[in-house]
Amino acid sequence: MMQIKNLHAKIGEKEILKGVNLALEKGKVHVLMGTNGSGKSTLTKAIVGHYDVSVTAGTIEYKGKNLVDMPAEERALEGVFLSFQNPIEIPGVNNAYFLRAALNAKEKYRGEKETNAAEFLKLMRAHAQKLGMNPDMISRGLNDGFSGGEKKRNEILQMEILQPDMILLDEIDSGLDIDALKAVSQGINRMKDGERTFLVITHYKRILDYIHPDYVHIFQDGQVIKNGGPELVDVLESEGYQAIVKD
Amino acid sequence: MKAVNLDLVHTEHPLYAKLQSMGMPANKTEQYRNFAIKPLLAQKYHFYNPEKSVPKEGEKLVITNGSVSEFPSGVQVRYESDFVCDNAHYDVLYFYSHAVSVQTIYVEVTRESRFELEHICNQAETFLPYRIVISTAKNIHVEIFETFRFDASEQSFVLYGLDAFVNTDTTLRWIRNASINQAQAKLVGTHRFNVAREGALELNTFDFGDANALHLYKIDLAEHAWSRAAHLLYANTQARSGNIIAINHNEVYAKSAQEARYILADEAVGIFDSKIRVDAGAQHSHAVQNSKAILLSPHAHMYAKPQLEIYIDELEASHGATIGELDADALFYLNSRGIEAEEARKILVLAFAQSLIDSIGSSHYVEKINQAFEAAYYKKEQ
């Protein structure tokens, strides 16, 4: 689904990614774990084309194209979705209006009929209900005044409506209470259809108990230093990153 | 054809001496420093003498080339040749417009009313000065939706103004929806609002387009009077546009709140110069003032000058101003969901404007103003 080869990137003058090689398999759940500041979020930003990150070498191959050459919106239209670690608040931009604009943009890109306002509202209400979201969040400003948990649910709501193929979840579990974690995990599981690929960045095992990853990758100093299965998480839990670095 | 200067005022006019001492506005005159008033006054114009035609009764108050052509029911209209203007006004063009206007239009609103005031100018290369006095009865609610239709008015200069008297326990809700383009007349409005005890003024102004336009206000608040002013301005190309406001808290328990939001594209210049003055006799005043501007281009300029002048201790007051670009993180967030760059910019600009548009409440007016804003914004995008 996605092949990242020898990816180097910097923020400002500082090199953060130092030759990332990572193969993300179609229909699988990949987990990326690593110490704070190792460059995990920068990797997701490089994949979605964030303006802060300059790719200096390497490729991100996806659906036969190199994403590095594409503007951010085109990457999204091609099916790449990032759930942000700290989703921004945009007062004045109605949540429903924004999400319908995003859905219509995708439909237009694919040459499909655009979902009208009434159909969209029905769709959004149904998804919001599944996620246990307060109905008034639909008509509020985008993430405006939302709690941390509400913002994360809103990211999952967007994911479920936009139906992307390559899903990057950057610490989707941070700041969630038990109920919110369950709701978010259920949302992720609803999207698992054997075709979509997930890259989940997390520091904790608890979300992995719900979403059952296929592969675990350890990130250190701007590189993937180890690839393995879910058993790697148990090693980390018991011995910490030091054991993997030594290994 | 003649330029706009003191030669147009008869030396025996009661305001002549005052005008002579104040002098016509120049590039260094504080209120007009950023507006480029000098070329506007120096240009040669025809002089149009408004006709005192008999207006017909209709739905709107229509002023065509300085004369009333239609008036709504519940409103009495007449002409007067003289009016005692506010001697304490700060703007020389306030006095000048009084001095050179052939007639003053008196509008008396005697009962609850809601109507549109439409200004029509269809004369090219013409200087068109006129003044309107609006007085309201006690204890009523009046809502006036002010619009402008400046077809075939290229190279003209409309200098108009209001002297509005908001009576005791009365609310005057003034909504200006002005979309004027550079091919049409330039506009300067110089106004005075006098709000009596427990009266209320809601001033909502929406100025969109690429024409030069400036409005200057003096608002006087008596005991327990209040005013809420909201100014949304969108200007593009080389427009110079703005609001200059003096709000005076003259007596106790007066309240004023003011919010300005400006969106400036291309090489446009926005002007927000506002002073709230709390007089020594105006204890327990409440005054807030805020101005925010977004520059959509590196060549756009915003002149923001929020000021408080306070002569008492017992009050609540605050003011502030911010000027910036569209938030890059917000833009990226929209892009990351597949919304292309221009559409994302539009969504954020509309969001910035929306809170002031929505604040007028009436869905009928909200829709009209949304349409006007989008028409001006999309015209720029084309």
Question: Can you give a write-up of this model?
Answer:
The complex is a heterodimer of chains A (247) and B (382). Chain A is of the alpha/beta class and 247 residues long. Chain A is built from nine helices and twelve strands. A six-stranded mixed sheet of chain A has the order 6-9-10-3-11-12, with helices on both faces. A four-stranded antiparallel sheet of chain A has the order 2-1-4-5. Chain A is globular and about 55 Å long. In chain B, helix 1 packs antiparallel against helix 3 (92-100).
Strand and helix map with partners:
The complex is a heterodimer of chains A (247) and B (382).
Chain A: E1 2-11, E2 14-24, E3 29-34, H1 40-48, E4 53-62, E5 65-66, H2 72-77, E6 80-83, E7 90-94, H3 95-109, H4 117-130, E8 141-142, H5 148-162, E9 166-170, H6 178-191, E10 197-201, H7 206-211, E11 215-220, E12 223-228, H8 231-239, H9 241-246
Parallel strand pairs in A: 3-10, 3-11, 6-9, 9-10
Antiparallel strand pairs in A: 1-2, 1-4, 4-5, 7-8, 11-12
Helix pairs in contact in A: 4-5, 5-6
Chain B: H1 16-22, H2 37-42, E1 46-47, E2 56-58, E3 61-64, E4 67-72, E5 75-80, H3 92-100, E6 104-109, E7 113-120, E8 126-136, E9 141-149, E10 157-166, E11 171-179, E12 186-195, E13 200-209, E14 213-221, E15 226-235, E16 240-249, E17 255-264, E18 269-278, E19 285-295, E20 301-310, E21 315-324, H4 328-335, H5 341-358, H6 363-381
Helix pairs in contact in B: 1-3, 4-5, 5-6
